[in-house]
Amino acid sequence: AYSSLEAALVEKDKAEKMLVKFYSITTDWTIVRPGGLMTAPATGKAILTADNTALGAINRADVASLVAKCIDNKDSYKKTLSAIDPSIETAFGNGNFGESQKFDV
Prior knowledge:
Elements: H1 2-23, E1 30-34, E2 36-38, E3 47-49, E4 57-59, H2 60-70, E5 79-84, E6 102-103
Parallel strand pairs: 1-5, 2-4
Antiparallel strand pairs: 3-5, 3-6
């Protein structure tokens, strides 16, 4: 599974590092890394966390909602956040993440 995405993930990592390095002074940005994407209606229970080891799934509609909430939220600027839905059961459990790192939008 990883081998089929490896090239794309390497390029994504490069792009994120360039964004942080070259645009942090002049631009407000937020990186949202969704968990495993699902196609279903929004649950409204998805969360953002600063825990970069968070594992879980999330519906696309919930990702869109969380991203929209970040746009005018200055607390989210210059941060990399993971988006998961603890209410969705996965092989990893119900969204494993550091509860203390939950990010409110």
